[in-house]
Design a protein that fits this description.
The complex is a heterotrimer of chains A (278), B (260) and C (159). Chain A is an alpha/beta fold and 278 residues long. Chain A is built from ten helices and ten strands. A six-stranded mixed β-sheet of chain A has the order 6-7-8-3-9-10. Chain A has a four-stranded antiparallel β-sheet with strand order 2-1-4-5, with helices on one face. With 260 residues, chain B is mostly helical. Chain B has nine helices and no strands. Chain B is globular and about 65 Å long. Chain C folds into two domains: 34 residues; 98 residues. Helices cover 24% and strands 31% of the residues of chain C. The chains are: A alpha/beta (278), B mainly alpha (260), C alpha/beta (159). Chains in contact: A-B, B-C. The interface between B and C is medium-sized, with 34 and 32 residues. The complex binds adenosine-5'-diphosphate (ADP) and magnesium ion. The site of magnesium ion has 5 residues of chain A, from helix 1.
């Protein structure tokens, strides 16, 4: 039930934490997402997979209310996000943590201040308590020792872990991860994956993770949606995905160059363009 | 056939785009103003930005102001000398600086030193999703990031222009009195009897406040509207300096026609 | 990252320097005590046949001392003469029969109004008109007169 007033979610027996109903979204005239419906129960770690530029980040932006769908509705914890007033949206965002693709640490603040940022902005806690909380969060991602470094002094994996610490500073009810594994070495990647799973289990957060990294994420996920060309083309549990015979899923999981997703960008006939054919 | 109407269309396009940008900038100014209350209540944020906008521009302002004053005195002396009225040197230096050169040059320097830095910083914050991250955390980036920079610029500009003027007048004194050997008493007294507090000093300060609003508005506006790529940010930085320079000179012409 | 304390200190220094500069401009450069900036003044009028190049804000001097400024200049459409409004420093009082003259500083310098005090016991009060005035020397008229006197045909083109 929505604690913020406004639009109530009515179904009684089954309560998904997140629900998208027939959502379509376009930037200008360029359609990005078309008729997407999905639901995610509380406490689950769910991934949205798809190629680059297929609209995964856009989907997260819909969930956080940064963009509004042209049609359909987005529900988070019983609130219809696209109809919330600015104040209610702000209140919802305080219970939401988002890990951006490249961390998005504030470059003018050091690690400690970055993690302290949401605490300082949204609470009136005394300095001593902020300090303890920040060190706890940093300890959770294993980077308590970096508290006094600037973001520019961190490696990519460390930045993302600090960003994770910042995202969980207010113990969010919903975590959104935007490609948490991109550009990391295998060790850093494994560390982040373990952290994400552990976080979900410990805090009972619901989490949506956008990624195109199949192999690592299948080990930690509860459920997967595949998106291609703005539509959901397949879904299932990690086990179902592994044994799936769906050609798109096979191509994605095996990493084959050509399949339902074409290798070649649409173009005129090759032979004709080279002038070999009249 | 060459497109004969192309230049005309191009001009039309530029005009329409200019009007659009102006409209957006005004709407943006309105947004900045209604989000400023929070900013002004959080002094540390403002002080931090004054440090970057004002303090870091101080050196270039002091150096340039001194040299401009020295050149003015040197040039003014040779001209005044041929009319036998070198005692008017103090007046010449002070009035040139107070009415025109101080506010305009300080604003141009401020635009290229602090304005461009502001655009680049905000543009990079946008490109690296820092502004988005802030918004998702439920913190309004306009109130937290943009408004403090805007106000810092508005506060710093008149102070920098005043410092520029004083350095110029002292530089003029150095050349006219110490180097050339004019009478120091005449330098100051002629200046004092011909410079009017309201007419010259206050009008100059009003000019620099208006320039401060214009330059920081342009800098912040270009920053948030930068295309979030490396090329986009560098383009926005260049645009800040160029647009600021043009706007400063155009505004200066209008204000001068209006005031003096 | 620059330390918070350092920033505070520098911004403090900046504020002191900036405000100090403004104060310097107001006190040392503009000489806050001069006419037209908060100093008590009173207004008198003077009509001239021709003001020449006199400008608004031109100085008004008595014995070479700055005593006021020209506040405005207008054409009186009834008499077709120029009416100058002068703001004089209240410290300085003149007699009722003071005369006003438009003078030029140096050969080509700016024009100003020179006041020459009379002998009347009654003081010039605010709103009074200065009766004795003499106009600006207009160079063209001067040259014209000079030429005409050579032709031995004196015509009073400028009355
Ligand atoms: N602000 C924007 N304006 C216009 N087009 C955008 C904008 N942001 C993203 N796009 C386009 O939308 C598409 C989907 O982007 P995104 O959701 O970021 O993809 P990804 O799946 O790689 O995260 C891309 O083709 C991108 O070019
Ligand atoms: Mg993306």
């Amino acid at each position: 039930m929505c604690l913020l007033g406004g639009y109530m979610y009515n179904e009684t027996d089954y309560k998904p934490f997140i629900e998208l109903k027939n959502v379509s979204f376009s930037y200008g005239t360029k359609p990005i997402l078309q008729d997407i419906s999905l639901s995610i129960p509380q406490g689950k770690l769910v991934a949205i997979m798809g190629g680059s530029g297929c609209g995964k980040t856009t989907l997260l932006r819909l969930l956080s209310g940064q963009v509004k769908p042209q049609s359909g509705s987005v529900w988070v914890d019983g609130c219809e996000v696209n109809r919330l007033s600015d104040r209610d949206l702000l209140a919802l965002r305080r219970r939401l943590g988002m890990l951006f693709q490249f961390g998005a640490l504030f470059t003018d603040l050091n690690v400690f201040e970055n993690v302290a940022f949401p605490l300082r902005e949204h609470t009136q806690l005394p300095e001593a308590m902020i300090r303890d909380l920040v060190l706890m969060k940093l300890q959770a991602v294993g980077l308590r020792g970096t508290a006094n470094l600037m973001p520019s002094q961190l490696s990519g994996g460390m930045s993302r872990r600090v960003a994770l610490a910042r995202a969980i500073a207010l113990d969010p009810a919903l975590m959104l991860y935007d490609e948490p594994f991109t550009g990391l070495d295998p060790i850093a990647l494994g560390t982040i994956a373990v952290l994400i799973r552990r976080l979900n289990d410990a805090l009972k957060t619901t989490a949506v993770m956008v990624t195109h990294d199949v192999h690592v994420s299948l080990n930690i996920l509860d459920y997967v949606y595949f998106i291609a060309e703005g539509r959901i083309v397949a879904q299932g549990t990690p086990h179902e995905v592994r044994v799936s015979t769906d050609p798109f899923v096979r191509q994605f999981v095996q990493g084959e160059a050509d399949g339902p997703v074409r290798l070649h960008y649409p173009a005129a006939d090759y032979a004709a363009e080279l002038g070999l054919k009249q | 056939m060459p497109d004969l109407l192309y230049p005309l269309r191009r001009v039309g396009h530029l005009v329409v785009e200019g009007v659009w940008r102006f409209g957006f900038a005004m709407r943006f100014l309105f947004l900045l103003l209604i989000n400023s209350l929070q900013t002004l209540q959080r002094l540390p944020l403002l002080i931090r930005e004054i440090y970057f906008a004002g303090v870091l521009s101080l050196l270039i302002i002091v150096v340039s102001g001194t040299f401009v004053g020295m050149v003015l005195a040197l040039q003014g002396y040779t001209t005044l000398n041929s009319f036998g009225s070198t005692e008017a040197l103090g007046t010449l230096v002070a009035l040139s600086l107070l009415r025109e050169l101080g506010p305009v040059l300080a604003a141009l320097l401020f635009a290229s030193r602090s304005g461009s830095a502001m655009t680049a910083e905000i543009g990079l914050m946008k490109a690296t999703e820092q502004l988005d991250a802030m918004a998702v955390m439920g913190v309004n980036p306009i109130a937290r990031v943009l408004a403090p920079r805007f106000w810092a610029g508005v506060v710093s500009m008149p102070l920098l222009a005043a410092v520029f003027n004083v350095c110029g007048i002292v530089g003029g004194y150095f050349v006219g009195v110490v180097m050339i050997g004019l009478d120091g008493g005449a330098y100051w007294s002629q200046m004092q009897s011909n410079v009017d507090l309201h007419y010259d000093v206050v009008n100059g300060v009003i000019k620099s406040v208006i320039f401060g609003v214009a330059v920081t508005l342009i800098a912040v506006f270009e920053g948030v509207n930068a295309v979030p790529t490396a090329a986009g940010v560098s383009g926005a930085t260049t645009r800040t300096v160029v647009t600021s320079a043009l706007v400063i000179l155009a505004l200066d012409f209008m204000l001068t026609a209006f005031m003096f | 990252m620059v330390q918070r304390g350092t920033i505070d200190l520098w911004v403090g220094v900046f504020a002191v320097i900036g405000l100090g500069a403004l104060l310097f401009l107001a006190l040392k450069v503009a000489n806050l005590t001069s006419i037209g900036s908060g100093v008590q003044s009173y207004v008198v009028y003077a009509d001239f046949d021709n003001i020449g190049g006199l400008k608004v804000r031109a100085p008004v001097k008595a014995a070479g001392v700055l005593v006021g400024r020209v506040e405005s200049i207008a054409l009186d459409t009834k008499t077709m003469r120029a009416r100058a409004t002068l703001a004089l420093n209240s410290e300085y009082r003149f007699s009722k029969d003071v005369s006003a003259q438009i003078l030029t500083a140096g050969l080509l310098g700016e024009q100003y109004i020179g006041l020459l005090d009379g002998g009347d016991e009654v003081q010039l009060a605010a709103g009074d008109k200065i009766d004795i005035t003499s106009s600006a020397l207009v160079l063209e008229d001067l040259v014209g007169k000079f030429m005409l006197s050579f032709a031995e045909k004196p015509t009073n083109s400028t009355e």
